[in-house]
Every structure is written in C-alpha cells, then in structure tokens.
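Extended Data, panel c. Modelled sequence:
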Amino acid sequence: MDRRKYQKLLVWQEAMDLVVGVYRITERLPASERFGLCQQLRRAAVSIPSNIAEGAGRHSDKDFIRFLNIANGSLLEVETQLLIALQLKYIEEINELQNSIDKIFAMLSSLKRKLKTEY
C-alpha cells in the first residue's frame, strides 16, 4: 500500500498551498507579532495538511474523520486569525486566502460525508 496516498488528495494539496500563502502573508506582519499572531497563524496553517496526512495514514475511516475534524478546526482558527490581522490593519486584504479557506472547508466537508457513507 502506498503510504503517501494522502499527497494525492486534492484537499491536502489545497491545504499545502494555503500554508504557503499564510507564510507569505505573515512575513508582512510587524516584528512585534513575530512570536504572537505570526507563529500562531503558521502553526494553525501547518496543522491543516498535517492532520489530513495523519488521518489518511490511519486504518479506519472513523479515525480519518476525526483528524479531518481537527483539520477543520485549525482551518477556522486560521480564518479567525487572518480576520484579526485584517482588523488590526496588519494586512490589507485576505481575499485569495479566504477563497482557499472556503474551498478547503467545502472539500473537507465533502470528504467527511463520503467517508461516513463508507463505514
């Protein structure tokens, strides 16, 4: 069995792109946020594809769904933190990242529904 099958999941690929986008946008945050919002955003973003990968490596759909739920929580955390950065005027817009977040949210929901029908 291919232990890297998670890399073929479109939701994982989209989540990886979101991580890159978050890293790029956090480079623009003020130095005073280096150990605050910047690190929190990066950790939450990295958590999304990491949990998708870990869940895909489990041997049951029920476990996979649990990790997809964790990824979903991290996705909402990223969205909230981006909105905070926007309100604080640390960044000017998040449209591209918001579109990615919306897409990942829909993909996670779809994958969870599919897995639930299989067990």
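The radius of gyration is 15 Å. This feature is highlighted in the accompanying rendering.
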